[in-house]
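Long-time lurker, first post. I've been practising inverse folding by hand and with some scripts of my own, and I keep getting stuck on stretches where the structure tokens seem ambiguous. Below is the full token string for one chain I'm working on. Before anyone asks, I'm not after the true native sequence, just a reasonable design that respects the backbone. If someone could post their per-position residues I'd love to compare against what I wrote down in my notebook.
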């Protein structure tokens, strides 16, 4: 429910953002960035030419992404994930590590050339979905259905109706289809795609490819050959590993490592939990599989603070200006 407090909070936040943009343009924040110290691992996902929130709120348009890279180059010290774990930090600048989740082909198309242009390193966390015969992740497919699909759909003898943000909600209990599927294994997700695919001729619209198409194995090899790119694993099917059976999660984690190492011919030692979701059992499975770097969004358990393999990250916000993004990055807070 939208309350007056929420509206007032939103208006106040937007006012602060406008004032901060004005302050940046007048040079008031130069000393803030000169004196900033510390480090942050950033999460990017897809990069597109325009309309970044067309299907979901995790994309960034190319123009804004270029602004980010120029800002990083000018004000921060950008380091690789390996250097981040080894704490090879600058003492004179704020340290940034760039990561990209989900393995979109747009990362190869747009991001890789810019990394070379600005000579900045990044790590790309990729699923093994291509090994399963798919070139799209289940949640991206559902995002396309939510935008182009019918108002009502039937799945597993249950009726779902479009509601907030065009998402599908069960009419009996109000649970969203995406949440229900996150708690299932991949066979259920594959069945959803099989049933809804005939009604979604999305492949005919090539302009939408940037929003869903996964990298090919050959593109992954080319990415791996770049001195500015490192490849990490992101699961097999992009399942929520904390919600599925632990034996299935163990198999996914191990297979994703084997798949990427077979493609690249090199050790893959980093794993990013899909959706930032994990459990102590999932963490243990990733360690047993041989991963040395485990990337979350936020620490979910008290013991994570002392675990030297797990690191928190900070997700990029496509709804704010570059100036406000960089300020939020340093303080790790979007509410200020």
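-- Answer (accepted) --
I ran through it position by position. Result:
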């Amino acid at each position: 429910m939208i309350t007056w407090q929420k509206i007032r909070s939103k208006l106040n936040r937007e006012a602060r953002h406008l004032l901060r943009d004005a302050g940046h343009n007048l040079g008031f924040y130069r000393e803030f960035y000169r004196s900033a110290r510390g480090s942050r691992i950033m999460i990017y996902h897809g990069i597109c030419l325009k309309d970044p929130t067309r299907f979901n709120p995790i994309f960034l348009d190319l123009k804004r992404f270029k602004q980010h890279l120029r800002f990083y180059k000018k004000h921060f010290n950008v380091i690789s994930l390996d250097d981040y774990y080894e704490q090879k930090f600058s003492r004179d600048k704020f340290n940034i590590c760039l990561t990209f989740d989900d393995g979109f082909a747009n990362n190869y198309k747009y991001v890789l050339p810019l990394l070379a242009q600005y000579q900045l390193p990044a790590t790309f966390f990729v699923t093994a979905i291509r090994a399963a015969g798919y070139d799209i992740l289940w949640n991206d497919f559902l995002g396309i259905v939510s935008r182009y699909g019918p108002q009502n759909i039937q799945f597993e003898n249950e009726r779902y109706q479009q509601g907030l943000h065009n998402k599908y909600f069960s009419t009996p209990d109000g649970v969203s289809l995406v949440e229900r599927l996150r708690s299932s294994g991949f066979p259920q997700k594959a069945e959803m795609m099989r049933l809804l695919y005939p009604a979604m001729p999305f492949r005919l619209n090539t302009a939408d490819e940037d929003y869903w198409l996964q990298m090919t194995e050959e593109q992954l090899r080319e990415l791996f050959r770049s001195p500015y790119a490192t490849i990490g694993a992101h699961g097999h099917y992009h399942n929520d590993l904390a919600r599925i059976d632990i034996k299935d999660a163990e198999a996914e984690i191990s297979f994703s490592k084997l798949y990427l190492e077979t493609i690249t011919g090199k050790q893959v030692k980093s794993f990013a939990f899909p959706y930032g979701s994990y459990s102590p059992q999932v963490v243990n499975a990733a360690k047993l599989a041989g991963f040395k770097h485990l990337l979350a969004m936020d620490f979910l358990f008290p013991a994570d603070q002392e675990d030297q393999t797990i690191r928190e990250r900070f997700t990029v916000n496509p709804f704010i200006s570059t100036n406000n993004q960089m300020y939020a990055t340093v303080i790790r807070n979007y509410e200020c």
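A couple of notes from the structure itself: DSSP finds twelve helices and 14 strands in the chain. The CA atoms of residues 115 and 235 lie 25 Å apart. Happy to go over any region you disagree with.
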